[in-house]
Amino acid sequence: MSQSPGSGTPGRAATPARPGATAGASGPSGPRRPADATGARDRRHSRPPSAAVYRRRRLVVLVGLLVVVGLVLALLAWVWPGFARSDAPAEPEPTVTVTADPPTPTLEPVARTGTTAFAQALPDTVLDLVLRSDSATDAWTAARALEAYQLEYADGEGDDATRVTVVAGQWPTSAEAEAAADDLVAAAGTPTEEGDVEVAGEVAGRYAVTDAGDGRATVTWRNDTAVLQATGPADVVTDVYAAFPL
User: Nearest Cα to 205, choosing from 187, 229, 188?
Assistant: First the structure.
């Protein structure tokens, strides 16, 4: 058998070129990417977050908390008007009342002269004033008084002692006592103060304070059938009236 010119010795067929390989290239192909490796895991996004990422996350959380707190405060200020105002009224402090002990007399009262129930009901002491004299009087006999007494109260001896004179009388009826009290008030002058006399919550008569001159005053009052009139220093005689048991 004849061979064509230029043919060589028979051998193995040439190996086809790998796809994508350039002609005449020699040596192994370039490095494979992870996507080119069968079964390989892509680690390009599996790195732990950096410190900067943590800082950004904390900042976002902090801003969110501040927004929530601001909304809560705004809601409280809207539904509770006094919450956001510094001029809201403060809670009142409890009031403590201190009551002083009543003054103690330093003298002994004189012996009583009247023996009737009315006379014995008149007090020996009023506040720090002590009975220094006690005598029956006919000053109110013309006004139809059944009985009347003049009593002198003082807080000491001598001219500088505080003194109050009380005239007390009793009438047969409340109407007669009221008429007598009205006459006494009219004779004393224009009242500077007046009001009801209450006993056990019920009105038992009237009282009136009138000016007696020289810093003195007179208090005239009626308690049912009893009429009393006290004269003394203006700053003392009203206290005597308030403390007098009749």
Answer: 229
CATH of domain 125-243: 3.40.1000.20
DSSP bridge partners of 194:
208
How far is it, in rounded angstroms, from Cα 109 to Cα 124? 6
Between the ranges 5-14, 39-48, 70-79, where is the mean pLDDT highest?
A: 70-79
- Find out whether 219 and 230 touch, Cβ atoms under 8 Å: yes
pLDDT of residue 31: 52
Instruction: List, edge to edge, every strand of the sheet that includes 129-136.
Output: 125-126, 129-136, 147-154, 163-170, 226-233, 216-223, 202-213, 191-199
Task: Tell me how far apart the alpha carbons of residues 178 and 165 are, in angstroms, rounded to a whole number.
Answer: 21
Would you state the pLDDT for residue 102? 61
138, 113 contact by CB (below 8 A): no
Q: Which residue is it, tokens 């002994």?
A: 108
Domain ranges of the chain: 125-243
